[in-house]
Prior knowledge:
Rossmann fold; Histone, subunit A; 50% helix
Amino acid sequence: MARAARSIGKGSIYTRAVFQDARPFPVIAGPTAGGKSALALALADAITSAGGAAEILSADAFQVYCGMDIGTAKPPPADRARVPHHLIDIRDPRQPFTVDDWLRLADPLIDDVRRRGSVPIVVGGTHLYIKALLEGLFDGPPPDEALRADLAARTDEHLRDELERVDPIAASRLHPNDRRRTIRALEVFRQTGRPISDLQQQWDRRRRPDARLIVLDWPAEAINRRINTRVRHMIDAGLVAEARGLYDAGALGAQARAALGYKQLIEHFEGRLSLDDAIERIKIDTRRFAKNQRTWLRRLSAAPPSAPAPLTLAAANMPPGALASRVLHECYCGYGES
């Protein structure tokens, strides 16, 4: 028997049972600095207020690393104490971490959360992780260590030039600093003679039915202003000292060193950039990353007809609470206005 209903938002009635059925769980995506974490927390609070329970799973390639707190915009301890968070602070930053590693952890966690009668809320800006969660991993050729070593000996500029020449679609999706995935794309091309973007078209034809994509949409000018503000706040919060401590301790592996904010500050620590230039470079590279994210979001939003329809929200003029009410209504009162 359903428990007593409580109302959240205008005209919407929920019961505890509605959060425990087989409705698709929300997967929140959007550009960096776009309010994804704030929405996830507000949505968890709204579900709890309605008599349900929720837990948040991070889909961020660098929030997995211990000690990389400010630059990865990890939720503060108070938020993590209020709502259970998962897949944060689970790796030493000296270690590599792949999309396959994340997916092997995320899938059973989602099942566990649902078995407990809670709603899993997946949120993050690593859209490759989200795509893998929704559509599975791309089944490419196995790694060729000799070829990979040859590519690894080349400069970032050389790799980027080759990728833009042989696979401009993949180049448009990958951040110029994403050396690891650039090498993988070139490795696949040299092994198969086909662009990885062409092979990945098989990946776009299926999507899991138990997850609903929530996309936060921002005008480019607005998100760029938010990025600049966020970078200033990170510097004021102690990002330089955090990165310096990790760097001096030799605590950053090759993958962690490539994270936005840390990569540019390492160039400062090594005398290749002034501090002011490093901070400006963080802003520029983060804005470029947000542009690449928009390409990913367009691709993610093209769901096959059999999948739950993505919900795209214009986030620029809506606070997290209002966005959460909209998501709650759309996901748990059917689709569209009732």
